[in-house]
């Protein structure tokens, strides 16, 4: 499994938000969405505020592949569904985005949003 470099982790995790364009079934990129990203250890996570029914989450489910741009990083990624670390991910969202109103931050830690947690994993280039 490919991992993030230290510079990539720092760049993406330090960014306020990232642009995420999921890959369509035909291989083309969808229109990018702006989404909050957090770091937990050496991993990066995103969530859909509107849960699994949101259009970007459904698009991500089609191929589990996307392209991200944030913090000077421009990279193809795999999207891995996970709910193993939801309490820790909630804490990371609270810590990173603490300066926003509680009502805004609390929208990303609802049960609906937690069910739409995706881990970003770098894709290796085809050889």
Characterise the protein shown here:
It is a single chain. By secondary structure, the protein is of the alpha+beta class. The chain has a seven-stranded antiparallel beta sheet. Strand 3 and strand 4 form a beta hairpin. The protein is globular. The mean pLDDT is 90.
- Which range does the strand content fall in? 25-35%
Largest sheet: 7 strands, antiparallel
Write out the strand line-up for the largest beta sheet, numbering strands in chain order. 2-1-5-6-7-4-3
Q: Please give the alpha-carbon distance between the first and last residues.
A: 15 Å
| Low-pLDDT segments | none
Number of helices: 5
Annotation keywords:
127 residues, alpha+beta, 7-stranded antiparallel β-sheet, 5 helices, 30% strand
Concise synopsis of the structure shown:
This protein is α+β, with helices and mostly antiparallel strands and 127 residues long. Helix content is 30%, strand content 30%.
Topology:
Blueprint: H1 6-14, E1 18-22, E2 33-35, E3 37-40, E4 43-47, H2 55-63, E5 65-70, E6 73-81, H3 86-96, H4 102-106, H5 111-114, E7 117-122
Antiparallel strand pairs: 1-2, 1-5, 3-4, 4-7, 5-6, 6-7
């Amino acid at each position: 499994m490919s991992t993030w470099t230290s510079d990539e982790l720092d760049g993406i995790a330090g960014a306020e938000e990232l642009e995420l364009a999921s890959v369509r079934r035909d291989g083309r990129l969808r229109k990018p969405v702006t989404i909050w990203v957090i770091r937990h250890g050496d991993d990066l996570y995103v969530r859909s505020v509107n849960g699994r029914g949101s259009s970007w989450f459904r698009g991500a489910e089609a191929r589990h592949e996307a392209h991200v741009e944030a913090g000077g990083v421009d990279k193809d990624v795999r999207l891995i569904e996970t709910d193993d670390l939801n309490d820790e991910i909630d804490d990371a969202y609270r810590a990173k985005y603490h300066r926003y109103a509680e009502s805004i931050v609390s929208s990303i830690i609802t049960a609906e949003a937690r069910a739409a947690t995706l881990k970003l994993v770098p894709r290796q280039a085809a050889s």
